[in-house]
């Protein structure tokens, strides 16, 4: 350990390395210490002292301002946004001054006035060879005293017992998993199992039903199933699967594959709003190009080709919801989706 | 053990208190060890300090927030100070976040301070790791501390993401939705993990409470423990130092802890706190009242995660789900194998790039040690230019990261610079593969160029800009010779040479060794050797600037 206040040159050595042709330079040692202005000029030292004091006083002022703005401004149910903003700025800036005053003051004190002699200290090997030898001996003795090497029966049965011990935990955790597949497959769009009543398409979020005649060409609706807002429990879970986008195109623009002719009505089509990539809502409808775009990862679906992927990381088309018009002229879902909505998962095809 | 009363009589009151404590704890030994412990000083050593101080500020502001935050997902109707949302249906967690922002005095400030400190925490850890990598500070004996640092970075990201999700707002809810989609893509157990995590179907009513426990209990405890371990190793190893006169692998040159280093480091804590407070006062972060409560249906355009999650989100965006035309042949990246769905368009980008980055990060110290067969302790850092291949590898990795990071903002790049979103994505896809190669090549050339410049300066001195005409009419620029100290900084670095394949104990050069030798060649074949005293001698003998310097002036 060197003396921090003596400026003497420290002994240095050369860096241990492979031999270089032509030899290596001699280490000249730590450069001679350069005195600061405050070391030689008492006036400069006094000035630095005053600066540090001023910075600490700024900190005190900051703390006082914090306390004043904390107690002078009360927040409650009727506070205006302006009050909240003003208090936030006052509290934040006063804290900043309180902290920066202390911080810059101390650092300035250290840099200008405290001894700034560089010191050299020797390093020691991380590992002591004595310790290593003693530790190895201890471990060997411990193993020897357990007799684990001499009594293989004990060792082997212990290994067997330890290997089996986690099984109960696996069983317990495995049982926590509910039957995922069944839940992911079904949405609220399935017609009532008893009455066969079909579910109306209603507006998100107020739940008013949509008449087919209200859907003009070029318009788009964010749709939830009728009755979603009346759910007491699991409303968000149901909504996360059932949200649908409803759009009307010129029927000539639609390329319909065989079997899906009855899924749309007069150019009105409904598709799941949940992206088949990782599940964000596909909320952007480009009216001119008939593209649907997911704002999270920019998967783009072509509405005229049954929402096939034309760009981005999604691989599957958006599932189509088959729709028709009921006797009152409202749009209803003919059936549930014909495949699970949302991101793909391992067991998807079984559902 | 003696029962006799101690004979030492402390002269002052402070001394008596110290003596009282010391007789009962033996803390004198600690003061003796640490009181004047030497720490090297350099601006680049401050990044780790910034990370530590941000973490302390996170603990302070986070504790305040836990007093008011309620992680319940129960439905409620808002009736607070923020008028536009009155009557809206939302979770209790979101409501209590609004309550903290608008009705708790200093609550908004604490929320903003906490969020900004979190962003700075991960940022300073990342920059600190870049500093450690580029200066070779991960080499023996610090490999394990490098790994601890890597784990801390992952923990920091996890801590950030769990905290980000807690307010249950629309933006973070969509982030959780993405996480759910990624988890579901895991083969065999993905659906099960998703249902386990969310307590059933997404979003369920359990996830915020679970993330809360992780965020305020488990992960911070792990971070705290690892930080302690990290710092213990810093003490055990003593800090590294930059090369220079008087510095070598057997000493440590710097300022003593007391008073000057402790004052600087302690003062720096207040500076970090002050700067974060100023930012929190003036710059809004995560205005959850603009996003609204989580609802699976709406989403805002231009959604961004917090910056440190960006690279993973960017990787998700870069991967094409389908290649090919709508009418012609289309290659999907979702496959059916044995009737099961394998959705590689999600699984690959979520796992592979992060897997590559962290595998290389964690194993690099051992890879380099194997290639160089260098088993010595290193306490003197490399200047990045003096390890050109390592620096180039680091820049390749950094570029790889940055391309993915940029991809997370592909839509914003498109709207801000008025270019097509699709083109931005195509370019970034190309850069994903070409960027690292390009960065490697360019960085290595720059490093070698800088080394040659150092050689020139060491051999011929510094250009003074003074032009002198010699008696026979020749013009030359005078070069000022370097001081021994400055020259030593330029010439003292280690420059390992290519280590050809060595026969093993049986006298055989095996395949692994040949591979190592090939890598060694790739690392060091175009090295620039440091100037030797003999070269300097020769340069002085041939040059005539020395004669000019010593010639009497004014002729």
Characterise the protein shown here.
The complex is a heterodimer of chains A (351) and B (555). In chain A, 35% of the residues lie in helices and 13% in strands. Chain A has 351 residues and is an alpha+beta fold. Residues 1-19 of chain A have low confidence and may be disordered. The longest helix of chain A is centred in the first third of the chain and has 32 residues, at 81-112. In chain A, the strands form 3 sheets. Chain A has a 5-stranded antiparallel beta sheet. In chain A, strands 6-7-8-9 form a 4-stranded antiparallel beta sheet, with no helix packed on it. A two-stranded antiparallel sheet of chain A has the order 11-12. The interface between A and B is large, with 122 and 136 residues.
Helix and strand layout, with pairings?
The complex is a heterodimer of chains A (351) and B (555).
Chain A: H1 37-40, H2 42-72, H3 81-112, E1 119-122, H4 129-146, H5 152-164, H6 167-176, H7 180-185, E2 201-203, E3 220-225, H8 235-242, E4 244-248, E5 268-272, E6 284-286, E7 291-293, E8 300-302, E9 308-311, E10 320-321, E11 323-325, E12 331-333
Antiparallel strand pairs in A: 2-3, 3-4, 4-5, 5-10, 6-7, 7-8, 8-9, 11-12
Helix pairs in contact in A: 2-3
Chain B: H1 13-25, H2 28-34, E1 38-39, H3 46-66, E2 75-77, E3 89-91, H4 92-102, H5 107-134, H6 143-165, H7 170-184, H8 190-198, H9 207-237, E4 251-256, H10 257-282, H11 288-291, H12 310-318, E5 322-324, E6 330-332, E7 334-337, E8 340-343, H13 344-372, H14 388-407, H15 410-417, H16 421-460, E9 462-469, E10 475-480, H17 484-491, H18 511-524, H19 533-542, H20 545-550
Antiparallel strand pairs in B: 1-4, 2-3, 5-6, 7-8, 9-10
Helix pairs in contact in B: 3-5, 3-10, 4-5, 5-6, 5-10, 6-9, 6-13, 7-8, 12-13, 12-14, 14-16
């Amino acid at each position: 350990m060197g003396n921090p206040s003596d400026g003497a040159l420290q002994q240095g050595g050369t860096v241990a390395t492979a031999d270089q042709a032509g030899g290596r330079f001699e280490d000249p040692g730590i450069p001679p210490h350069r005195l600061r202005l405050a070391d030689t000029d008492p006036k400069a030292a006094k000035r630095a002292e005053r600066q540090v004091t001023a910075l600490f006083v700024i900190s005190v002022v900051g703390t006082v301002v914090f306390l004043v703005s904390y107690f002078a401004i009360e927040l409650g149910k009727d506070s205006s946004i302006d009050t909240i903003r003003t208090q936030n700025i006052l509290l934040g800036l006063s804290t900043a001054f309180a902290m920066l005053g202390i911080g810059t003051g101390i650092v300035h004190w250290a840099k200008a006035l405290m001894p700034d002699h560089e010191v050299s200290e020797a390093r020691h090997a991380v590992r002591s060879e004595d310790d290593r030898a003693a530790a190895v001996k201890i471990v060997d003795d411990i193993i020897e005293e357990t007799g684990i090497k001499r009594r293989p029966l004990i060792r082997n049965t212990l290994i067997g017992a330890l290997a089996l011990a986690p099984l109960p935990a696996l069983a317990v955790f495995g049982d926590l998993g509910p039957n995922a597949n069944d839940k992911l497959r079904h949405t609220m769009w399935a017609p009532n199992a008893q009455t066969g009543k079909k579910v109306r398409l209603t507006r998100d979020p107020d739940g008013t039903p949509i008449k087919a005649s209200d859907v003009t060409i070029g318009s788009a609706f964010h749709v939830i199933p009728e009755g979603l807002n009346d759910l007491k429990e699991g409303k968000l879970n149901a909504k996360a699967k059932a949200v649908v986008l409803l759009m009307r195109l010129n029927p000539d623009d639609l390329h319909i594959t065989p079997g899906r002719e009855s899924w749309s009505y007069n150019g009105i089509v409904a598709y799941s709003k949940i992206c088949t990539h990782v599940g964000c809502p596909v909320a952007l409808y480009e009216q001119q190009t008939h593209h649907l775009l997911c704002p999270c990862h920019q998967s783009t679906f072509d509405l005229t080709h049954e929402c096939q992927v034309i760009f981005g990381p999604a691989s599957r088309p958006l599932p189509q919801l088959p729709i028709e018009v009921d006797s009152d002229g409202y749009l209803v879902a003919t059936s549930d989706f014909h495949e699970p909505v949302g991101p793909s998962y391992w067991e998807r095809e079984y559902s | 053990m003696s029962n006799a009363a101690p004979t030492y009589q402390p002269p002052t009151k402070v001394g008596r208190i110290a003596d009282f404590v010391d007789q009962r704890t033996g803390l004198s030994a600690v003061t003796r060890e640490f009181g004047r412990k030497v720490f090297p000083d350099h601006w680049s050593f401050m990044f780790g300090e910034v990370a530590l101080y941000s973490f302390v500020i996170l603990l302070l502001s986070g504790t305040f927030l836990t007093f008011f935050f309620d992680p319940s997902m129960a439905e409620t109707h808002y009736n607070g100070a923020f008028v536009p949302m009155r009557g809206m249906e939302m979770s209790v967690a979101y409501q209590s976040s609004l309550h903290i922002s608008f009705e708790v005095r200093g609550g908004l400030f604490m929320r903003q301070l906490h969020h900004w400190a979190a962003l700075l925490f991960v940022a300073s850890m990342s920059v600190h790791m870049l500093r450690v990598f580029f200066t070779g500070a991960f080499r023996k004996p610090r490999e394990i501390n490098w790994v601890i640092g890597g784990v801390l970075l992952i923990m920091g990201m996890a801590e950030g993401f769990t905290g980000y999700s807690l307010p249950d707002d629309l933006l973070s809810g969509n982030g959780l939705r993405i996480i759910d989609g990624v988890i579901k893509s895991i083969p065999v157990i993905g659906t099960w993990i998703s249902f386990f995590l969310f307590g059933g179907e997404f979003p369920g009513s359990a996830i915020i409470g679970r993330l809360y426990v992780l965020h305020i209990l488990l992960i911070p405890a792990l971070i705290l423990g690892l930080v302690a371990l990290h710092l213990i190793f810093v003490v055990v190893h003593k800090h590294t130092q930059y090369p220079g006169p008087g510095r070598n692998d057997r000493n440590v040159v710097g300022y003593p802890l007391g008073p000057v280093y402790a004052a600087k480091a302690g003062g720096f804590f207040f500076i970090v706190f002050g700067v974060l407070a100023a930012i929190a006062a003036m710059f809004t972060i995560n205005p959850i009242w603009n996003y609204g409560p989580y609802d699976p249906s709406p989403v805002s355009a231009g959604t961004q995660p917090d910056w440190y999650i960006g690279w993973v989100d960017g990787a998700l965006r870069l991967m094409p789900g389908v290649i090919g035309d709508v009418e012609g042949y289309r290659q999907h990246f979702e496959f059916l194998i044995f009737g099961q769905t394998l959705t590689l368009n999600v699984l690959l980008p979520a796992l592979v790039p992060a897997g590559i980055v962290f595998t290389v990060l964690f194993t690099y110290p051992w890879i380099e040690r194997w290639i160089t067969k260098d088993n010595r302790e290193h306490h003197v850092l490399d200047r990045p230019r003096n390890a050109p291949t390592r620096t180039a590898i680091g820049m390749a990795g950094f570029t790889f990261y940055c391309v993915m990071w940029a991809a997370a903002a592909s839509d914003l790049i498109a709207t801000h610079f008025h270019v097509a979103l699709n083109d931005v994505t195509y370019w970034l896809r190309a850069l994903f593969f070409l960027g690292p190669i390009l960065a490697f090549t360019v960085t290595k050339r720059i490093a070698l160029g800088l080394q040659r410049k150092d050689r020139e300066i060491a051999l011929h001195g510094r250009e003074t800009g003074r032009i002198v005409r010699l008696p026979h009419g020749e013009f030359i620029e005078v070069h000022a010779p370097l001081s021994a100290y400055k020259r030593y900084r330029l010439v003292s670095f280690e420059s390992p040479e290519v280590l050809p394949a060595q026969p093993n104990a049986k006298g055989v050069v095996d395949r692994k060794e040949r591979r190592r030798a090939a890598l060694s060649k790739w690392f060091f074949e175009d090295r620039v050797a440091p100037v030797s005293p003999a070269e300097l001698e020769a340069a002085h003998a041939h040059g005539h600037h020395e004669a000019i310097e010593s010639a009497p002036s004014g002729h």
